[in-house]
């Protein structure tokens, strides 16, 4: 295979893997958590095949550019916090709209409207992009505190992550929203990001 072809394949495979890391939460929404591993497997397989050709090019022609691109990609995938940055951008870009929804919930303009669950609110179309998993948010009361969960990932059973608004600023704890939290991090005065397994 020509050196230029291997370089192009190396760039394409690296861009594919980094793009997958950046957009994985949007893709999960489209493909479901069941199909997403197959996409990772296909992209990873392609990346490994190109890596083999890159190693061969290095050994035969001392062409180090393709393998260098792939090594940098692997280092980025392992050490660069793609998910954290994407979620931080999502939080900052949509915070005002989410606070509008919070205000509507607190004023009683948005109330639970899903028949099988009295804590779920299916958001109107103009707000359904603020939460993953079908446009639903979860509202819970803890004493006088109102807590609202906007999903960033809605997995199977109790596997989820999301932004939580707490009217009192109280930290969410395991058991809230039916979750067993492995991560709770404060983002802003009343906002947290949580992950449950």
Could you estimate the helical fraction of the residues in percent?
A: 40-55%
Task: Report the sheet-strand fraction.
Answer: 15-25%
Strand segment count = 6
**What series of H and E elements makes up the topology?**
HHHEEEEEE
Distance between the ends = 45 Å
- Main beta sheet, described? 6 strands, antiparallel
Mean pLDDT: 91
Number of domains: 2
Main sheet strand line-up: 1-2-3-4-6-5
Low-confidence residue ranges? none
Rounded to an integer, what's the Rg over CA atoms? 21 Å
Q: Helical region count?
A: 3
Shape summary: elongated
Based on secondary structure, the structural category is: alpha+beta
Structure write-up:
There is one protein chain. With 197 residues, the chain is of the alpha+beta class. Helix 1 crosses helix 2. The protein contains three helices and six strands; from the N terminus they run αααββββββ. It starts with a helix and ends with a strand. The chain folds into two domains: 3-80; 84-196, no CATH class. It has helices spanning 3-61, 65-79, 82-106, and strands at residues 120-122, 136-142, 145-154, 160-166, 181-188, 191-196.
């Amino acid at each position: 295979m020509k050196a230029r072809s291997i370089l192009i394949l190396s760039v394409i495979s690296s861009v594919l893997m980094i793009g997958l890391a950046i957009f994985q939460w949007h893709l999960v929404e489209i493909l479901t958590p069941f199909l997403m591993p197959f996409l990772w497997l296909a992209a990873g397989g392609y990346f490994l095949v190109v890596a083999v050709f890159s190693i061969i090019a290095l050994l035969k022609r001392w062409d180090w550019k393709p393998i260098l691109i792939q090594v940098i990609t692997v280092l980025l995938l392992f050490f660069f916090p793609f998910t954290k940055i994407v979620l931080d951008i999502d939080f900052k870009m949509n915070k005002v709209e989410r606070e509008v929804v919070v205000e509507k919930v607190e004023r009683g303009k948005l109330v639970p409207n899903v028949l099988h669950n009295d804590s779920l609110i299916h958001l109107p179309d103009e707000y359904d992009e603020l939460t993953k998993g079908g446009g639903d948010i979860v509202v819970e009361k803890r004493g006088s505190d109102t807590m609202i969960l906007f999903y960033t990932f809605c997995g199977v059973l109790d596997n989820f992550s999301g932004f939580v608004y707490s009217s009192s600023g109280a930290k969410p704890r395991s058991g809230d929203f039916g979750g067993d939290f492995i991560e709770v991090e404060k983002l802003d005065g009343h906002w947290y990001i949580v992950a449950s397994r």
